[in-house]
Write a structure and sequence with these properties.
heterodimer; A: 15 helices; 13% strand; B: alpha+beta; Outer Surface Protein A, domain 3; 3-stranded antiparallel beta sheet; two-stranded antiparallel sheet
Chain lengths: 417, 104
């Protein structure tokens, strides 16, 4: 019999618990933000992936699980402000029960991040349980703690794959983001994982400084028989402080779309769908998959719509108080998130291409969900929406995701470890 | 196991690593999420999803046999085979040539 995660009796401590609404309440700021986006779209108004995701799925496709906040690096753009282990992090027993629950719900894939997952004391037992429950695993790591012995041990856990973070093709570019010496240490980790024949991606957050190094990052990945996975910089966590300085320019984004066209094997974690508004639909999901295809579990059991949306007012629930299934099915945050209107993008001719961009980016930059994505690429030049579906005589089959994770590609994406 | 061949001399087989999940609109197919091998598709035909599940649970993944034994209408069979061709193209289903259909 599967034991579901239900950690009742461990209420929040201190003043914090007095400030927060109960498990099934919606924070006033979240309520107001959702209301501003306007009426939910009707099924007749939606297209592409949204036809299937509207209203949510029975379970996530991918769950991003930041299993610890402990990290031996201090990346300046870390979406979860990782560093020290947090006091209420899930115990190994709790984590194992959560794996069981996710398996029972038929979640397809778990994407482990953090923090650095290999600093979580129970990481091996958790990975082994995933293997036993036939859950595909992706581990996002900074690579610095990978020894040859660990790489060999990991190879026995297939299906598992790894994302090793490099935010530049040179020590200068990478280490200004990830800290001194991180570049060389990550390369050693890549070498060891590659030597164990593990499936690898080099994960790189696109910044205005790393953009000129894309070709070299691509070459580095190939050198390790790895794919390059490029993801979008979000203003989450410590990233809020550096986003304005680091995020790519519109011209870089335009050139990036052309570069992706020339490198179809490069993965993007579904994170650049806002660039579809240039007029060219990129591979993968064409909308935000948060709360529908994916969600994020944080170290202390907090559940958020996605890894980039770790704002307290959008916390959907906590595993110390509720089961994951209960949160997924009943959380008001998720319910409202799944019915968000188009806000300021309502009526835009390219809405069907980008579906308004990234809500987390809007929230952290604008403190609003109804405005345009701060990186909206439109410059008042509407064009024709593109068809995004393919019908067969037996219904529509939409390839939504070329999974690099979910999501995900992964509906979920994880940048820092 | 005795396999029933598609009339054209080949049969469709659901790949064992493909996961299938029912959803309100039909279902989701997911194939091992490896970066260079993974795929996920939404299918808005409940009957196709049920066929895939029946083939897996009762016919060891042999979709041709599942169709021949569970679908009576020629038109429905034709539509299903067309849909399966699409799943072949997307990497969830394999076509195997049948060299012999004689049961032992």
């Amino acid at each position: 019999m599967t034991q579901f995660v239900q950690f009742l009796g461990r209420g929040r401590s201190g003043a914090k618990s007095c400030e927060r609404p109960g498990p099934l309440a919606l924070h006033p700021l979240a309520r107001a933000a959702f209301a501003e986006t306007g009426k939910p779209l009707s099924p007749a108004q939606v297209s592409g992936s949204q036809r299937f995701l509207l209203g949510g799925l029975s379970a996530p496709i991918t769950v991003t699980w930041e299993i610890t906040a402990a990290c031996n690096l201090r990346c300046v753009h870390c979406l979860s402000s990782s560093g020290k282990r947090r006091p209420r992090e899930l115990t190994t027993d709790q984590a194992l029960a959560l794996v069981d629950e996710l398996a029972e719900m038929q979640v397809f894939q778990i994407h482990f991040g953090g923090g650095e997952p290999f600093l979580y004391p129970g990481i091996w037992r958790v990975l082994e349980r995933c293997r036993e429950r036939d859950l595909v695993m992706c581990v996002s790591t900074n690579g610095t703690l990978i020894t040859s012995e660990r790489a060999r041990r990991l190879a026995a856990l297939e299906p598992i794959y790894f994302q090793v973070s490099l935010d530049g093709a040179t020590p200068e570019t990478n280490d200004r983001i990830r800290g001194q010496g991180a570049f060389q240490r990550a390369l050693r980790g890549l070498e060891r994982l590659a030597a164990a024949n593990l499936s690898l991606t080099v994960n790189s957050v696109l910044t205005r400084y790393s953009f000129p190094e894309l070709d070299r990052l691509y070459a580095i990945a190939r050198n390790f028989n790895a794919k390059l996975r490029v993801t979008r910089l979000r203003p989450s966590g410590r990233g809020r402080a550096v986003w304005a300085e680091l995020h790519p320019t519109r011209e870089q984004y335009r050139d990036f779309v052309a570069w992706l066209r020339e490198h179809p094997d490069v993965l993007t974690a579904d994170s650049f769908f806002h660039l579809n508004a240039f007029g060219e639909r990129l591979a993968g999901l064409d909308m935000c998959g948060a709360a529908t295809a994916t969600c994020c579990i944080c170290p202390e059991g907090e559940v958020y719509p996605c890894a980039f949306f770790q704002a307290p007012e959008f916390e959907a629930g906590n595993l110390h108080e509720q089961s994951f299934r209960e949160i997924w099915q009943r959380s008001p945050v998720f319910a409202f998130y799944r019915q968000m209107g188009a806000g300021a993008c309502s009526g835009c001719l390219r809405y069907d291409l980008c579906h308004g961009g990234c809500p987390a980016t809007k929230w952290f930059v604008l403190q609003s969900l109804q405005g345009r994505d701060p990186e909206c690429v439109l410059a008042d030049s509407p064009t024709h929406p593109l068809a995004a579906k393919q019908e067969t005589p037996y219904g529509a089959i939409t390839a939504a995701v070329r999974c690099s994770s979910v999501t995900s590609q992964d509906g979920a994406c994880q940048e820092e470890a | 196991m005795t396999m029933t061949a598609h009339p054209a001399g080949y049969r469709y087989r659901l790949l064992p690593e493909v996961k299938i999940r029912r959803e309100a609109f039909g279902g989701i197919l997911y194939k091992y999420g490896c970066a260079d091998r993974g795929a996920l598709s939404f299918i808005n035909s409940r009957s196709l999803v049920e066929l895939l599940l029946i083939a897996r649970e009762q016919f060891a993944g042999d979709l041709s046999t599942a169709i021949e034994e569970r679908v009576s209408s020629a038109a429905s069979k034709a539509r299903l085979y067309t849909a399966l061709d699409e799943l072949v193209r997307r990497g969830y289903v394999a076509i195997e040539a049948v060299t012999t259909t004689t049961a032992e």
